[in-house]
Design a protein that fits this description.
49% helix; homodimer; 7-stranded parallel sheet; 297 residues
Protein backbone atom coordinates (compact mmCIF):
# COMPACT_ATOMS: atom_id res chain seq x y z
CA UNK A 1 0.00 0.00 0.00
CA UNK A 2 2.71 2.43 1.04
CA UNK A 3 4.50 1.61 -2.23
CA UNK A 4 1.34 2.32 -4.23
CA UNK A 5 1.04 5.73 -2.61
CA UNK A 6 4.72 6.56 -3.20
CA UNK A 7 4.66 5.54 -6.82
CA UNK A 8 1.43 7.47 -7.38
CA UNK A 9 3.00 10.56 -5.81
CA UNK A 10 5.91 10.18 -8.25
CA UNK A 11 3.64 9.74 -11.25
CA UNK A 12 1.71 12.81 -10.12
CA UNK A 13 4.92 14.83 -9.92
CA UNK A 14 5.66 13.76 -13.49
CA UNK A 15 2.20 14.93 -14.50
CA UNK A 16 0.78 11.66 -15.83
CA UNK A 17 -2.92 12.14 -16.49
CA UNK A 18 -3.90 8.60 -15.50
CA UNK A 19 -2.20 9.08 -12.13
CA UNK A 20 -3.92 12.43 -11.64
CA UNK A 21 -7.32 10.94 -12.42
CA UNK A 22 -6.69 8.08 -10.01
CA UNK A 23 -5.56 10.39 -7.21
CA UNK A 24 -8.59 12.62 -7.68
CA UNK A 25 -10.84 9.57 -7.44
CA UNK A 26 -9.17 8.54 -4.17
CA UNK A 27 -10.03 11.96 -2.76
CA UNK A 28 -13.54 11.91 -4.21
CA UNK A 29 -14.25 8.53 -2.61
CA UNK A 30 -12.73 9.53 0.71
CA UNK A 31 -10.16 6.74 0.51
CA UNK A 32 -7.67 6.52 3.36
CA UNK A 33 -4.93 6.32 0.75
CA UNK A 34 -5.78 9.90 -0.18
CA UNK A 35 -4.67 11.14 3.25
CA UNK A 36 -1.34 9.34 2.87
CA UNK A 37 -0.86 10.64 -0.62
CA UNK A 38 -1.62 14.26 0.28
CA UNK A 39 1.06 14.22 2.97
CA UNK A 40 3.66 13.00 0.45
CA UNK A 41 3.12 15.28 -2.53
CA UNK A 42 5.03 18.45 -3.21
CA UNK A 43 2.41 21.19 -3.66
CA UNK A 44 3.68 23.98 -5.86
CA UNK A 45 2.27 27.08 -4.18
CA UNK A 46 3.43 29.29 -7.05
CA UNK A 47 0.95 27.91 -9.58
CA UNK A 48 -1.85 30.36 -10.39
CA UNK A 49 -5.25 29.01 -9.36
CA UNK A 50 -7.97 30.85 -11.24
CA UNK A 51 -11.46 30.77 -9.81
CA UNK A 52 -14.06 31.37 -12.51
CA UNK A 53 -17.61 31.96 -11.37
CA UNK A 54 -20.78 33.86 -12.22
CA UNK A 55 -24.51 33.32 -12.60
CA UNK A 56 -25.86 30.47 -14.77
CA UNK A 57 -25.93 31.36 -18.45
CA UNK A 58 -23.16 33.94 -18.35
CA UNK A 59 -21.00 31.77 -20.59
CA UNK A 60 -18.47 30.61 -18.02
CA UNK A 61 -17.68 27.37 -19.79
CA UNK A 62 -17.31 29.09 -23.16
CA UNK A 63 -14.94 31.53 -21.50
CA UNK A 64 -12.97 28.71 -19.89
CA UNK A 65 -12.79 27.15 -23.33
CA UNK A 66 -11.43 30.40 -24.78
CA UNK A 67 -8.86 30.60 -21.97
CA UNK A 68 -7.85 27.01 -22.75
CA UNK A 69 -7.18 28.09 -26.35
CA UNK A 70 -4.73 30.65 -24.97
CA UNK A 71 -3.02 28.05 -22.79
CA UNK A 72 -2.69 25.65 -25.71
CA UNK A 73 -1.30 28.36 -27.98
CA UNK A 74 1.34 29.08 -25.33
CA UNK A 75 2.07 25.37 -24.90
CA UNK A 76 1.06 25.51 -21.24
CA UNK A 77 -0.28 22.58 -19.25
CA UNK A 78 -3.62 23.37 -17.67
CA UNK A 79 -6.06 21.60 -15.35
CA UNK A 80 -9.76 22.49 -15.06
CA UNK A 81 -11.85 21.45 -12.08
CA UNK A 82 -15.51 22.04 -12.94
CA UNK A 83 -17.69 22.04 -9.85
CA UNK A 84 -21.29 21.14 -10.40
CA UNK A 85 -23.60 21.96 -7.52
CA UNK A 86 -26.31 19.90 -9.28
CA UNK A 87 -29.14 21.78 -7.69
CA UNK A 88 -32.58 21.23 -9.16
CA UNK A 89 -32.43 24.73 -10.70
CA UNK A 90 -29.27 24.45 -12.71
CA UNK A 91 -28.70 20.82 -13.47
CA UNK A 92 -29.69 20.84 -17.11
CA UNK A 93 -27.78 23.99 -17.94
CA UNK A 94 -24.62 22.69 -16.32
CA UNK A 95 -24.64 19.41 -18.19
CA UNK A 96 -24.86 21.45 -21.38
CA UNK A 97 -21.90 23.55 -20.24
CA UNK A 98 -19.80 20.48 -19.65
CA UNK A 99 -20.42 19.25 -23.17
CA UNK A 100 -19.56 22.61 -24.72
CA UNK A 101 -16.28 22.67 -22.84
CA UNK A 102 -15.31 19.20 -23.90
CA UNK A 103 -13.76 20.43 -27.17
CA UNK A 104 -10.34 20.27 -25.51
CA UNK A 105 -11.03 17.13 -23.57
CA UNK A 106 -8.49 15.05 -25.47
CA UNK A 107 -5.74 17.63 -25.82
CA UNK A 108 -2.54 16.27 -24.20
CA UNK A 109 -1.91 19.52 -22.28
CA UNK A 110 -5.46 19.87 -20.95
CA UNK A 111 -6.83 17.93 -18.00
CA UNK A 112 -10.54 18.43 -17.22
CA UNK A 113 -12.41 16.96 -14.30
CA UNK A 114 -16.00 17.49 -13.29
CA UNK A 115 -16.95 17.22 -9.61
CA UNK A 116 -20.52 16.87 -8.45
CA UNK A 117 -21.19 18.71 -5.22
CA UNK A 118 -24.75 17.63 -4.62
CA UNK A 119 -25.55 17.57 -0.98
CA UNK A 120 -22.83 17.81 1.66
CA UNK A 121 -21.21 21.11 0.82
CA UNK A 122 -19.09 21.19 3.96
CA UNK A 123 -17.48 17.91 3.03
CA UNK A 124 -17.15 18.92 -0.58
CA UNK A 125 -15.25 22.08 0.24
CA UNK A 126 -12.49 20.05 1.89
CA UNK A 127 -12.38 17.67 -1.05
CA UNK A 128 -12.08 20.50 -3.53
CA UNK A 129 -9.14 21.88 -1.54
CA UNK A 130 -7.52 18.44 -1.66
CA UNK A 131 -8.19 18.02 -5.38
CA UNK A 132 -6.77 21.44 -6.09
CA UNK A 133 -3.62 20.57 -4.13
CA UNK A 134 -3.23 17.34 -6.08
CA UNK A 135 -3.38 19.34 -9.30
CA UNK A 136 -0.81 21.79 -7.91
CA UNK A 137 1.54 18.87 -7.44
CA UNK A 138 1.15 17.60 -11.03
CA UNK A 139 3.32 19.87 -13.18
CA UNK A 140 0.55 22.14 -14.43
CA UNK A 141 1.25 25.76 -15.33
CA UNK A 142 -2.21 26.87 -14.26
CA UNK A 143 -5.26 25.42 -12.52
CA UNK A 144 -8.77 26.70 -13.22
CA UNK A 145 -11.73 26.07 -10.94
CA UNK A 146 -15.07 26.76 -12.53
CA UNK A 147 -18.25 26.94 -10.50
CA UNK A 148 -21.73 28.32 -10.83
CA UNK A 149 -22.47 31.37 -8.74
CA UNK A 150 -25.24 29.72 -6.80
CA UNK A 151 -25.28 29.56 -3.04
CA UNK A 152 -21.99 29.48 -1.20
CA UNK A 153 -19.87 27.60 -3.71
CA UNK A 154 -18.43 30.72 -5.32
CA UNK A 155 -17.23 32.07 -1.98
CA UNK A 156 -15.59 28.76 -1.20
CA UNK A 157 -13.87 28.71 -4.57
CA UNK A 158 -12.64 32.25 -4.03
CA UNK A 159 -10.99 31.01 -0.84
CA UNK A 160 -9.04 28.53 -2.98
CA UNK A 161 -8.02 30.81 -5.80
CA UNK A 162 -5.16 33.19 -6.30
CA UNK A 163 -7.49 35.25 -8.51
CA UNK A 164 -11.26 35.10 -8.91
CA UNK A 165 -12.91 36.08 -12.16
CA UNK A 166 -16.65 36.81 -12.14
CA UNK A 167 -18.30 36.33 -15.54
CA UNK A 168 -21.38 38.42 -16.31
CA UNK A 169 -23.57 39.09 -19.32
CA UNK A 170 -25.15 42.41 -20.34
CA UNK A 171 -28.66 40.92 -20.11
CA UNK A 172 -28.77 42.22 -16.58
CA UNK A 173 -29.21 45.65 -18.19
CA UNK A 174 -28.05 48.51 -16.01
CA UNK A 175 -29.10 46.83 -12.81
CA UNK A 176 -25.66 46.37 -11.39
CA UNK A 177 -27.20 47.17 -8.02
CA UNK A 178 -29.04 43.87 -8.24
CA UNK A 179 -25.77 41.98 -8.54
CA UNK A 180 -25.41 39.62 -5.62
CA UNK A 181 -23.17 41.37 -3.15
CA UNK A 182 -21.25 38.13 -2.63
CA UNK A 183 -20.06 38.25 -6.23
CA UNK A 184 -18.97 41.89 -5.83
CA UNK A 185 -16.96 40.93 -2.77
CA UNK A 186 -15.00 38.06 -4.25
CA UNK A 187 -14.26 39.44 -7.73
CA UNK A 188 -10.62 40.24 -8.52
CA UNK A 189 -11.82 41.01 -12.06
CA UNK A 190 -15.02 40.92 -14.08
CA UNK A 191 -15.38 39.47 -17.55
CA UNK A 192 -18.33 41.09 -19.25
CA UNK A 193 -18.96 38.31 -21.72
CA UNK A 194 -21.11 38.44 -24.88
CA UNK A 195 -19.92 42.04 -25.11
CA UNK A 196 -21.34 42.37 -28.62
CA UNK A 197 -24.86 42.25 -27.23
CA UNK A 198 -27.05 45.28 -26.91
CA UNK A 199 -26.61 47.14 -23.67
CA UNK A 200 -23.08 45.84 -23.07
CA UNK A 201 -21.38 49.26 -23.09
CA UNK A 202 -24.04 50.69 -20.77
CA UNK A 203 -23.65 47.76 -18.39
CA UNK A 204 -19.85 48.03 -18.42
CA UNK A 205 -20.07 51.74 -17.57
CA UNK A 206 -22.53 51.10 -14.79
CA UNK A 207 -20.36 48.33 -13.35
CA UNK A 208 -17.23 50.48 -13.51
CA UNK A 209 -19.05 53.35 -11.82
CA UNK A 210 -20.28 51.04 -9.04
CA UNK A 211 -16.76 49.72 -8.50
CA UNK A 212 -15.38 53.26 -8.41
CA UNK A 213 -18.06 54.34 -5.92
CA UNK A 214 -17.01 51.44 -3.69
CA UNK A 215 -13.33 52.40 -4.11
CA UNK A 216 -12.54 49.03 -5.65
CA UNK A 217 -9.76 48.70 -8.20
CA UNK A 218 -11.24 45.75 -10.03
CA UNK A 219 -10.71 45.62 -13.80
CA UNK A 220 -13.63 44.91 -16.13
CA UNK A 221 -12.71 42.95 -19.27
CA UNK A 222 -15.08 42.84 -22.21
CA UNK A 223 -15.03 39.48 -23.96
CA UNK A 224 -16.82 37.59 -26.72
CA UNK A 225 -15.68 34.17 -25.67
CA UNK A 226 -17.13 32.17 -28.55
CA UNK A 227 -15.19 34.37 -31.00
CA UNK A 228 -12.01 34.39 -28.87
CA UNK A 229 -12.26 38.19 -28.65
CA UNK A 230 -10.81 40.03 -25.67
CA UNK A 231 -9.38 36.82 -24.24
CA UNK A 232 -5.64 37.48 -24.62
CA UNK A 233 -5.47 40.56 -22.33
CA UNK A 234 -7.74 38.85 -19.80
CA UNK A 235 -5.55 35.75 -19.73
CA UNK A 236 -2.38 37.82 -19.41
CA UNK A 237 -3.88 39.68 -16.45
CA UNK A 238 -5.08 36.46 -14.79
CA UNK A 239 -1.59 34.91 -15.02
CA UNK A 240 0.13 37.87 -13.39
CA UNK A 241 0.77 37.24 -9.70
CA UNK A 242 -1.27 39.37 -7.33
CA UNK A 243 0.40 42.13 -5.34
CA UNK A 244 1.12 41.47 -1.61
CA UNK A 245 0.83 37.77 -2.20
CA UNK A 246 2.42 36.51 1.02
CA UNK A 247 -0.15 37.81 3.48
CA UNK A 248 -2.97 36.72 1.22
CA UNK A 249 -1.41 33.29 0.72
CA UNK A 250 -1.22 32.74 4.47
CA UNK A 251 -4.84 33.82 4.93
CA UNK A 252 -6.05 31.49 2.18
CA UNK A 253 -4.06 28.66 3.70
CA UNK A 254 -5.47 29.34 7.18
CA UNK A 255 -8.98 29.17 5.78
CA UNK A 256 -8.16 25.95 3.95
CA UNK A 257 -6.48 24.44 7.02
CA UNK A 258 -9.60 25.22 9.07
CA UNK A 259 -11.84 23.44 6.57
CA UNK A 260 -9.51 20.46 6.29
CA UNK A 261 -9.33 20.11 10.08
CA UNK A 262 -13.11 20.36 10.29
CA UNK A 263 -13.46 17.69 7.63
CA UNK A 264 -11.12 15.37 9.57
CA UNK A 265 -12.70 16.04 12.95
CA UNK A 266 -16.18 15.37 11.59
CA UNK A 267 -15.22 11.95 10.22
CA UNK A 268 -17.78 9.41 11.35
CA UNK A 269 -20.54 11.93 11.93
CA UNK A 270 -23.21 10.92 9.46
CA UNK A 271 -26.40 12.90 9.04
CA UNK A 272 -28.38 9.81 8.05
CA UNK A 273 -27.35 7.97 11.19
CA UNK A 274 -28.17 11.05 13.28
CA UNK A 275 -31.58 11.20 11.65
CA UNK A 276 -32.29 7.55 12.36
CA UNK A 277 -31.19 7.82 15.99
CA UNK A 278 -33.11 11.05 16.48
CA UNK A 279 -36.30 9.69 14.96
CA UNK A 280 -36.27 7.06 17.71
CA UNK A 281 -34.99 9.31 20.50
CA UNK A 282 -37.70 11.87 19.83
CA UNK A 283 -40.30 9.42 21.17
CA UNK A 284 -38.89 9.76 24.68
CA UNK A 285 -40.80 12.36 26.67
CA UNK A 286 -37.69 13.93 28.19
CA UNK A 287 -35.57 13.99 25.06
CA UNK A 288 -32.78 16.58 25.23
CA UNK A 289 -30.57 17.13 22.20
CA UNK A 290 -27.59 18.25 24.32
CA UNK A 291 -27.57 14.98 26.24
CA UNK A 292 -28.01 13.19 22.90
CA UNK A 293 -24.96 14.78 21.23
CA UNK A 294 -22.81 14.15 24.29
CA UNK A 295 -22.27 10.65 22.82
CA UNK A 296 -20.91 12.16 19.62
CA UNK A 297 -18.42 14.72 20.82
CA UNK B 1 -21.50 25.89 40.33
CA UNK B 2 -23.79 22.92 39.85
CA UNK B 3 -26.28 24.65 42.10
CA UNK B 4 -26.11 27.86 40.05
CA UNK B 5 -26.90 25.90 36.91
CA UNK B 6 -29.77 24.03 38.52
CA UNK B 7 -31.36 27.14 39.93
CA UNK B 8 -30.97 28.94 36.60
CA UNK B 9 -32.64 26.02 34.83
CA UNK B 10 -35.54 26.34 37.29
CA UNK B 11 -35.84 30.08 36.81
CA UNK B 12 -35.78 29.53 33.06
CA UNK B 13 -38.61 27.00 33.32
CA UNK B 14 -40.57 29.63 35.24
CA UNK B 15 -39.88 32.10 32.46
CA UNK B 16 -38.05 34.78 34.43
CA UNK B 17 -36.65 37.30 31.98
CA UNK B 18 -33.51 38.01 34.01
CA UNK B 19 -32.70 34.29 34.03
CA UNK B 20 -33.30 34.05 30.30
CA UNK B 21 -31.02 36.99 29.62
CA UNK B 22 -28.31 35.48 31.79
CA UNK B 23 -28.56 32.07 30.14
CA UNK B 24 -28.36 33.62 26.67
CA UNK B 25 -25.25 35.50 27.71
CA UNK B 26 -23.64 32.26 28.90
CA UNK B 27 -24.22 30.79 25.47
CA UNK B 28 -23.08 33.94 23.70
CA UNK B 29 -19.81 33.98 25.65
CA UNK B 30 -19.23 30.27 25.16
CA UNK B 31 -19.24 29.66 28.92
CA UNK B 32 -18.80 26.06 30.07
CA UNK B 33 -21.81 26.57 32.30
CA UNK B 34 -23.91 26.86 29.16
CA UNK B 35 -23.17 23.24 28.22
CA UNK B 36 -24.27 22.08 31.68
CA UNK B 37 -27.38 24.20 31.56
CA UNK B 38 -28.44 23.01 28.10
CA UNK B 39 -28.31 19.38 29.24
CA UNK B 40 -30.61 20.17 32.19
CA UNK B 41 -33.38 22.20 30.60
CA UNK B 42 -36.66 20.82 29.35
CA UNK B 43 -36.99 21.98 25.74
CA UNK B 44 -40.61 22.23 24.68
CA UNK B 45 -40.52 20.97 21.11
CA UNK B 46 -44.16 21.96 20.55
CA UNK B 47 -43.51 25.69 20.62
CA UNK B 48 -43.79 27.32 17.18
CA UNK B 49 -40.48 28.82 16.05
CA UNK B 50 -41.12 31.38 13.32
CA UNK B 51 -38.21 32.30 11.07
CA UNK B 52 -38.72 35.74 9.55
CA UNK B 53 -36.35 36.77 6.80
CA UNK B 54 -36.15 38.78 3.60
CA UNK B 55 -33.95 41.35 1.90
CA UNK B 56 -32.91 44.53 3.73
CA UNK B 57 -35.58 47.21 3.64
CA UNK B 58 -38.55 44.85 3.22
CA UNK B 59 -39.89 45.90 6.60
CA UNK B 60 -39.13 42.75 8.55
CA UNK B 61 -38.84 44.48 11.88
CA UNK B 62 -42.03 46.46 11.35
CA UNK B 63 -43.75 43.18 10.52
CA UNK B 64 -42.32 41.51 13.63
CA UNK B 65 -43.61 44.48 15.57
CA UNK B 66 -47.08 43.99 14.06
CA UNK B 67 -46.96 40.28 14.93
CA UNK B 68 -45.97 41.23 18.48
CA UNK B 69 -49.14 43.36 18.67
CA UNK B 70 -51.13 40.22 17.85
CA UNK B 71 -49.32 38.21 20.52
CA UNK B 72 -49.91 40.89 23.11
CA UNK B 73 -53.61 41.17 22.23
CA UNK B 74 -53.89 37.40 22.75
CA UNK B 75 -51.96 37.60 26.04
CA UNK B 76 -49.26 35.29 24.66
CA UNK B 77 -45.66 35.27 25.82
CA UNK B 78 -43.26 35.77 22.93
CA UNK B 79 -39.48 35.82 22.47
CA UNK B 80 -37.72 37.49 19.55
CA UNK B 81 -34.15 36.64 18.60
CA UNK B 82 -32.93 39.26 16.12
CA UNK B 83 -29.83 38.13 14.29
CA UNK B 84 -27.61 40.86 12.97
CA UNK B 85 -25.04 39.72 10.45
CA UNK B 86 -23.39 43.17 10.77
CA UNK B 87 -21.92 43.06 7.32
CA UNK B 88 -20.53 46.33 6.02
CA UNK B 89 -23.51 46.56 3.63
CA UNK B 90 -26.38 46.36 6.05
CA UNK B 91 -25.12 47.53 9.41
CA UNK B 92 -26.77 50.93 9.45
CA UNK B 93 -30.15 49.69 8.30
CA UNK B 94 -30.19 46.94 10.87
CA UNK B 95 -29.44 49.22 13.77
CA UNK B 96 -32.38 51.33 12.63
CA UNK B 97 -34.54 48.22 12.50
CA UNK B 98 -33.67 47.34 16.07
CA UNK B 99 -34.75 50.74 17.29
CA UNK B 100 -38.06 50.61 15.41
CA UNK B 101 -38.81 47.23 16.95
CA UNK B 102 -38.08 48.38 20.47
CA UNK B 103 -41.61 49.72 20.98
CA UNK B 104 -42.47 46.52 22.84
CA UNK B 105 -39.14 46.19 24.55
CA UNK B 106 -40.55 46.74 28.01
CA UNK B 107 -43.76 44.76 27.68
CA UNK B 108 -43.82 42.01 30.36
CA UNK B 109 -44.84 39.34 27.81
CA UNK B 110 -42.23 40.25 25.20
CA UNK B 111 -38.59 39.26 25.39
CA UNK B 112 -36.30 40.66 22.66
CA UNK B 113 -32.63 39.84 22.23
CA UNK B 114 -30.30 40.98 19.47
CA UNK B 115 -27.38 38.74 18.49
CA UNK B 116 -24.47 39.99 16.43
CA UNK B 117 -23.19 37.38 14.02
CA UNK B 118 -20.19 39.26 12.67
CA UNK B 119 -17.49 36.88 11.57
CA UNK B 120 -17.59 33.20 12.49
CA UNK B 121 -20.90 32.10 11.03
CA UNK B 122 -20.26 28.42 11.62
CA UNK B 123 -19.86 29.05 15.33
CA UNK B 124 -22.80 31.40 15.39
CA UNK B 125 -25.18 28.87 13.90
CA UNK B 126 -24.58 26.52 16.81
CA UNK B 127 -25.06 29.35 19.29
CA UNK B 128 -28.34 30.38 17.68
CA UNK B 129 -29.57 26.79 17.99
CA UNK B 130 -28.61 26.83 21.66
CA UNK B 131 -30.25 30.21 22.26
CA UNK B 132 -33.41 29.07 20.53
CA UNK B 133 -33.52 25.95 22.73
CA UNK B 134 -33.10 28.07 25.86
CA UNK B 135 -36.08 30.16 24.76
CA UNK B 136 -38.07 26.98 24.10
CA UNK B 137 -37.48 26.00 27.71
CA UNK B 138 -38.71 29.33 29.11
CA UNK B 139 -42.49 29.16 29.01
CA UNK B 140 -42.97 31.16 25.79
CA UNK B 141 -45.94 30.53 23.51
CA UNK B 142 -43.96 31.42 20.39
CA UNK B 143 -40.36 32.20 19.43
CA UNK B 144 -39.53 34.43 16.48
CA UNK B 145 -36.13 34.52 14.82
CA UNK B 146 -35.58 37.49 12.59
CA UNK B 147 -32.66 37.72 10.22
CA UNK B 148 -31.65 39.62 7.12
CA UNK B 149 -31.68 37.66 3.90
CA UNK B 150 -28.00 38.16 3.21
CA UNK B 151 -25.64 35.28 2.64
CA UNK B 152 -26.35 31.99 4.35
CA UNK B 153 -28.01 33.22 7.51
CA UNK B 154 -31.56 32.83 6.18
CA UNK B 155 -30.98 29.21 5.24
CA UNK B 156 -29.57 28.50 8.68
CA UNK B 157 -32.55 30.14 10.34
CA UNK B 158 -34.92 28.10 8.19
CA UNK B 159 -33.23 25.00 9.57
CA UNK B 160 -34.23 26.16 13.05
CA UNK B 161 -37.78 27.18 12.36
CA UNK B 162 -41.04 25.32 12.27
CA UNK B 163 -42.20 27.86 9.65
CA UNK B 164 -40.22 30.37 7.63
CA UNK B 165 -41.80 33.61 6.46
CA UNK B 166 -40.08 35.57 3.69
CA UNK B 167 -40.93 39.28 3.69
CA UNK B 168 -40.83 41.13 0.36
CA UNK B 169 -41.78 44.56 -0.92
CA UNK B 170 -43.37 45.40 -4.27
CA UNK B 171 -40.40 47.63 -5.23
CA UNK B 172 -38.92 44.61 -6.96
CA UNK B 173 -41.63 45.23 -9.60
CA UNK B 174 -42.57 42.17 -11.58
CA UNK B 175 -39.09 40.71 -11.49
CA UNK B 176 -39.90 37.75 -9.31
CA UNK B 177 -37.46 35.78 -11.45
CA UNK B 178 -34.69 37.88 -9.92
CA UNK B 179 -35.64 36.72 -6.44
CA UNK B 180 -32.79 34.87 -4.88
CA UNK B 181 -33.53 31.20 -5.37
CA UNK B 182 -32.48 30.50 -1.78
CA UNK B 183 -35.42 32.58 -0.52
CA UNK B 184 -37.82 30.73 -2.81
CA UNK B 185 -36.58 27.42 -1.42
CA UNK B 186 -36.97 28.18 2.26
CA UNK B 187 -40.27 30.10 2.22
CA UNK B 188 -43.25 28.41 3.86
CA UNK B 189 -45.12 31.64 3.19
CA UNK B 190 -44.49 35.08 1.75
CA UNK B 191 -45.56 38.36 3.31
CA UNK B 192 -45.83 40.97 0.60
CA UNK B 193 -45.41 43.97 2.84
CA UNK B 194 -46.16 47.62 2.05
CA UNK B 195 -48.99 46.19 -0.03
CA UNK B 196 -50.48 49.67 -0.51
CA UNK B 197 -47.60 50.65 -2.75
CA UNK B 198 -47.87 50.89 -6.48
CA UNK B 199 -47.21 47.63 -8.25
CA UNK B 200 -48.12 45.48 -5.25
CA UNK B 201 -50.99 43.64 -6.94
CA UNK B 202 -48.89 43.01 -10.05
CA UNK B 203 -46.04 41.69 -7.95
CA UNK B 204 -48.36 39.45 -5.92
CA UNK B 205 -49.81 37.99 -9.12
CA UNK B 206 -46.37 37.39 -10.57
CA UNK B 207 -45.19 35.73 -7.37
CA UNK B 208 -48.26 33.52 -7.19
CA UNK B 209 -47.82 32.53 -10.82
CA UNK B 210 -44.16 31.65 -10.24
CA UNK B 211 -45.08 29.53 -7.21
CA UNK B 212 -47.78 27.78 -9.21
CA UNK B 213 -45.36 27.12 -12.08
CA UNK B 214 -43.00 25.51 -9.58
CA UNK B 215 -45.86 23.47 -8.09
CA UNK B 216 -45.35 25.07 -4.70
CA UNK B 217 -48.27 25.52 -2.35
CA UNK B 218 -46.91 28.54 -0.55
CA UNK B 219 -49.40 31.19 0.54
CA UNK B 220 -48.76 34.87 -0.21
CA UNK B 221 -50.07 37.28 2.44
CA UNK B 222 -50.44 40.96 1.66
CA UNK B 223 -49.62 43.14 4.65
CA UNK B 224 -49.23 46.78 5.58
CA UNK B 225 -47.32 46.18 8.76
CA UNK B 226 -47.11 49.76 9.99
CA UNK B 227 -50.92 49.99 9.83
CA UNK B 228 -51.44 46.50 11.33
CA UNK B 229 -53.32 45.51 8.14
CA UNK B 230 -53.36 41.88 7.01
CA UNK B 231 -51.51 40.76 10.13
CA UNK B 232 -54.23 38.74 11.90
CA UNK B 233 -54.66 36.07 9.16
CA UNK B 234 -50.89 35.85 8.70
CA UNK B 235 -50.36 35.33 12.41
CA UNK B 236 -53.10 32.74 12.60
CA UNK B 237 -51.52 30.82 9.71
CA UNK B 238 -48.05 31.04 11.25
CA UNK B 239 -49.28 29.62 14.55
CA UNK B 240 -50.93 26.59 12.96
CA UNK B 241 -48.73 23.52 13.18
CA UNK B 242 -47.34 22.31 9.87
CA UNK B 243 -48.63 19.11 8.34
CA UNK B 244 -46.44 15.94 8.63
CA UNK B 245 -44.57 17.54 11.50
CA UNK B 246 -42.84 14.45 12.86
CA UNK B 247 -40.63 13.67 9.91
CA UNK B 248 -39.76 17.32 9.49
CA UNK B 249 -39.04 17.70 13.19
CA UNK B 250 -36.57 14.81 13.08
CA UNK B 251 -34.86 16.25 10.01
CA UNK B 252 -34.52 19.68 11.60
CA UNK B 253 -33.12 18.08 14.74
CA UNK B 254 -30.61 16.00 12.76
CA UNK B 255 -29.37 19.16 11.04
CA UNK B 256 -29.13 20.91 14.40
CA UNK B 257 -27.39 17.97 16.02
CA UNK B 258 -24.82 17.96 13.20
CA UNK B 259 -24.05 21.63 13.71
CA UNK B 260 -23.86 21.29 17.48
CA UNK B 261 -21.49 18.32 17.20
CA UNK B 262 -19.36 20.26 14.72
CA UNK B 263 -19.25 23.21 17.07
CA UNK B 264 -18.11 20.97 19.93
CA UNK B 265 -15.56 19.05 17.87
CA UNK B 266 -14.01 22.26 16.56
CA UNK B 267 -13.43 23.66 20.05
CA UNK B 268 -9.86 24.89 20.30
CA UNK B 269 -9.36 25.36 16.57
CA UNK B 270 -8.73 29.06 16.20
CA UNK B 271 -8.29 30.67 12.80
CA UNK B 272 -6.01 33.37 14.19
CA UNK B 273 -3.65 30.79 15.69
CA UNK B 274 -3.73 28.82 12.43
CA UNK B 275 -2.85 32.00 10.53
CA UNK B 276 0.06 32.76 12.84
CA UNK B 277 1.45 29.24 12.63
CA UNK B 278 0.96 29.09 8.87
CA UNK B 279 2.66 32.44 8.29
CA UNK B 280 5.76 30.94 9.86
CA UNK B 281 5.42 27.45 8.39
CA UNK B 282 5.09 28.84 4.88
CA UNK B 283 8.75 29.88 4.99
CA UNK B 284 9.84 26.26 4.95
CA UNK B 285 10.63 25.10 1.42
CA UNK B 286 8.87 21.73 1.78
CA UNK B 287 5.77 22.99 3.58
CA UNK B 288 2.81 20.62 3.20
CA UNK B 289 -0.55 21.62 4.65
CA UNK B 290 -1.62 17.99 5.19
CA UNK B 291 1.39 17.31 7.39
CA UNK B 292 0.68 20.63 9.12
CA UNK B 293 -2.93 19.82 10.02
CA UNK B 294 -1.98 16.36 11.28
CA UNK B 295 -1.17 18.12 14.59
CA UNK B 296 -4.69 19.48 14.80
CA UNK B 297 -6.87 16.46 14.08
Amino acid sequence: MEKTVQSLAQSLAQGHFAAIARALTWVENGSELADDLLRQIHINTQIPVLGITGPPGAGKSTLVNALLNECIAKNQRVAVLAIDPSSPFSKGALLGDRIRMSRHFNHPNVFIRSVASRGALGGLAAKVIEMCDLLKSARFDVVMIETVGVGQSEVEVAALSSKTLVVLVPEAGDEVQQLKSGLMEIADAFALNKADREGAAKFANSLQKTLKDQHKEVPVFQTIADKQQGIAPLYEWLMQPKANDNKQAAELLAEQAYRLIQHQRMQGVDKDILLKQLSEALEHPNFNIYRFIANWV
